[in-house]
Amino acid sequence: MMRFINPKTDYAFKKIFGSTGSKDILISFLNALIYEGDPTIEDLEIINPNLPPQLQGLKDTYLDVRARLIDGTIVIIEMQVLNVQSFGKRVLFNAAKTYAFQLQSGEGYRMLKPVIALTITDFEMFAGRDRLISRFVYREKSEGWDYPDNDVELVFVELPKFTKELDRLETIADKWIYFIKYARSLTAIPENMDDIPELHQAFEIANLADLSPSELEDLERREMFIYDQQGALNLKLEQGIEQGLKRGRQAEKRNIARNLLARLSNEAIAEVTELSLQEIEDLRQEIT
């Protein structure tokens, strides 16, 4: 029986897709998710994922994986588990910063190369939309034609929207997304995924048996942190919903009381609505 690290953690994601020996894995992964399985990317260079600020006061940028394709296009990849505040703005900031900071002093704008920001989320980024993979570029708002230099593209993969079972996987994109979402719960490499050499290699890297004790300890600590943060967010959401329901119920009681003011006494309205006599008297004062 095999056990695999969780590709959704930043440590595991970087180890699988951003290590020195991960070039073929990353090529297959990007071709699947960005180019619908076409072998568009033939070669790439995995580069330092950190973008230090080049201007005083500007934030550092810490990405999961960053690569330069042979045509100069830069692809930045981020795996995000928690739906933190202003995350969409952060994605846009990282893409814009990556695009702008390509230039060295004295270089002209013609030297700028396209940037593709691929973001995989373990939450719904676009609620109410069914698309699993969404792509955004600059377009004219009224007629929809592309901006002439459409050099920044945002690509999102929302894992909760992927619902295919193992025996229903069809495309290589399906298999890569299944790997990211479910590898942690698998006990062997599935037969219908083992025919892709890059996926087999990814499973081999994710094999817990090949990790040192210190790596295992670090991984467990990171996973526990994520679970704690998810629990805290869920608790806040539940508390917010409960508080909202309470406010809604209270508002409904006050509306009913207002409609009864002209017909019933304060005591009768209190019995119907469970509001206090003082609250009902305050409502009477509001309308006088």
Categorize the overall geometry: elongated
Mean pLDDT, all residues: 85
Helix/strand/pairing category: alpha/beta
Binned strand content: 5-15%
Count of runs of 4 or more consecutive helical residues: 8
Overall number of structural domains: 2
> Strand sequence of the main sheet, in spatial order?
1-4-5-6-8-7
What separation lies between the terminal Cα atoms? 77 Å
Enumerate the spans where pLDDT stays under 50 for 5 or more consecutive residues: none
Largest sheet: 6 strands, mixed
> Count of DSSP E strands?
8
Outline of the structure:
This protein is α/β, with parallel strands linked by helices and 288 residues long. It is built from 8 helices and 8 strands, in the order ααβββββαβββααααα.
Keyword list:
288 residues, 6-stranded mixed beta sheet, alpha/beta, 42% helix, 2 domains, 13% strand
